[in-house]
Amino acid sequence: MKKIALMCDSSADISKKQAEELDIHVVRMPIIIDGKEYIEEETIEESEIIKALREGVVVKTAQPIIGDLTKMWDELLKEYDEVFYIPLTYSLSGTCQVAIQLAEAYEGRVTVLNSEFVCYPTVKMLLTARDMFGKGYTCAQVKEIFERDGELLAILVPETLTALKNGGRISPAAAALAGLLKIQPLLNVKHGAIDLVDKVRTLKKAYKEGISYVLDGVDPKDYDWMIIDADNRAVSDELKVLLEEATGQPVEQREFKAVIMSHTGPGTIGFGRIKKIKY
């Protein structure tokens, strides 16, 4: 049986400790704060990033450095037969298409998913891939099945609009008006892209609508369920119970890390589902 390395980038919301425990290799995306570049958990701690975000400092991210990406592949291929890499969704970053092109030079030893995944669902898919490899599936077969059958849907409820404004996802004028009218947006993550799907008047109603949205039109037994929070565990604890009651299924509880939090802001709650892969 081939020895296959599992790989993602830090948009998968996985810490160094978690990556080591799960034997997943992570290329870290640069974090830019006030024009200065950092690498999460290497040159800056997560608490410092959260502090900057809560103070309204502009925090941005960049694609993984190409040299770092290929260097990791080269190092992994000294120990492994192949690399299976799930990057940040192609709808949110150019990393995916760049990686697919770069992988062509590795003559089949590096497989890059044309990804629609982001945050912790990326890790879930990698763990599914590992199980499939153990059952004899090849990287090419897993890629085909994931791209055909993989499905992520999530609703993000930001606590404030500051990070969305700083990241250019909404205009300063729209953010000011929304704050004045106490309008709360609901963001839909579907096919790897983020879109505005609804606006309500209170956070409480937004959470309720978010749960209803991810449940709409599906059999909960066909999905894995999760709730993800950005430095907002007390609220996440309460909402996890509600999501479990609504789905009748177990709900995993995870945290947004710096890459995603820099775009949605601290306090954000995400309700998500991933379709179970049949194999």
From TrEMBL:
Acyltransferase in keyword set: no
Keyword vocabulary terms for this entry: Lipid-binding
GO molecular function: lipid binding
Lineage summary: Bacteria, Bacillati, Bacillota, Erysipelotrichia, Erysipelotrichales
S-adenosyl-L-methionine keyword on record: no
Official protein name in the record: DegV family protein
Domain of life: Bacteria
